[in-house]
TrEMBL record:
Residues involved in heme binding: C454
GO biological process annotation, one example: sterol metabolic process
Listed Pfam families: p450
Full protein name: sterol 22-desaturase
Amino acid sequence: MATNASNTLYAALRTLPVQLPDQVTGGSVWYTVGAVVASLLVLEQLVYRTKKGHLPGPRWTIPIIGKFADSRSPTLEKYIESWKSGALSAVSVFNIFIVMSATNEYSRKIFNSPKYAEPCLVASAKQVLCPDNWVFLNGKAHVEYRRILNTLFTRKALSIYLQTQDAITRQHFARWLIESELSSKPGTLMNPIRDLNMVTSLRVFCGSHIPDHAIATITEKYWVITCALQLVNFPLAIPGTATYRAIQARKEAMVWLEAAAASSKRAMAEGKDVECLLDAWVMEINEARKQGKMDREFSDREMALVVLSFLFASQDAMSSGLIYFLQHLADHPDVLAKVREEQERVRGGDFERPTTLEMLDAMPYIKACVKETLRLRPPVTMVPYKATRPFPISEDYTVPKNTIIIPSLYPSVMDEEVYPEPEKFLPDRWLDPESPANANPQQYLVFGSGPHRCIGVEYVMMHMSVVGGVAACLLDWTHHVTPDSEKTQMIATIFPKDGCIVSFRPRKHD
């Protein structure tokens, strides 16, 4: 069999426009092929060692796949070990050279250097979210686009979204109570929170322009997208791979999101009231045109891609934040008691009263709790960028062009000089204006930094405050602690390894 294979390869080589000596034998062909492969593998190691330079990291890389096996089951604990190895460290996966930062200084430098680096999220992100999605813009084009989107997160716009958030939160809590009463066992919080977030996000972003059955479809499909947005996945989008499945899921979701954009444009043209983010966007565009401040069109597809990108943040990152928020409140009854005192005072004892922006303004304690949850368990621990040119990040190291360079957020928010007892949940650290936490805002990288800093910071704080506040008013819940409760799993964002096992009861008021 080996002889036949050799003869076949030899015959194929003879058809190439390369003159092969007549005396070449099957054995020598295999020797030549082996020599070429061996040379390429040696070259791979030399290229890796050259790019790595003096940085900490594996001395040699596993041929072809590199650290792919480790990346298939990432944990926060593994990354912490990597960050401890040095301010900058290197690794290779599928010949993708990666440099990770572990200090606030280098992470901020990456975030704030659009001349040298652009966001790429993960290697498969452009295939999944589309390369023309606004999140991949850089420079002036990004600044102009972001200026338009900023109008969707003004106080006026947030007040519209808040009504939807409060109503849907209450609906889901009522369902949780019914399900808890019917079940004799506690359940994980993962899926209920993801469902709450997806329904809330789609109603906030798309309003009634998207039907209920489409929300169910997108919820299912977006989980497929989430699973493909790991730091590392198989690089080719071929059938059977996570990236391929995510692309198909995105196509199905986009059908509904584009239809919602078209419906919003029709509704605003008919003079209907603004009820969601798409409506607010269409009205902003119309007003800007009237004033001569805008002459461009936003297609249905373009608007749908923006919503698609917002869903990634509002679904995955927000779900992570809310799961840990409810877990922290359950694990710290003294903190929950203070949250409840604040809710009763602000709401005047009327817990059915819908939340307003004015109420939220009077709730500094729950905001401190939200901020502390996001510090202690930042949903996104790192945000991959790509070096667009050689990047002199330090005096003795230049990141090669096309390197994936990753600013890590977690080490910054665990700095014990800025956050004493960083492993503890201490919301009070945010109530003192002179505290080290408040005196060093540059250390709080939960929302990133620079031109690509999260555009929805106020939306996040508002949503988490509403969900946590209404939960404190209406629910009693118990966190059933397991050995995996404090361990993490990473699925694009981080979650408790056990899914956060809880049971709910209606809260009784005196």
